[in-house]
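WARN no homologs supplied; continuing
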Amino acid sequence: FVYFVQAGAYTRTEEAEQQRAKLAIIGYTAKITEREQAGRTVYRVRVGPYEQRGEADAQHQKLQESGVEAQLVRVERP
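OK structure emitted
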């Protein structure tokens, strides 16, 4: 598995871009990925990937302390 810290999922690209920009201001490089969900496209804002869960946990904690609502996401390697 690899780990990401997801800092939001949005139905509009503009909202996802705004969140990515906010993260950049506080020093994080985030990527936006698209996913079809219930017939709609969802734009996910994620930081990572991290090889170790501990690294992802540390980043998750830092984001939370910065006032960013985030969650840890585990993704199976392709």
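The mean pLDDT is 96.
OK
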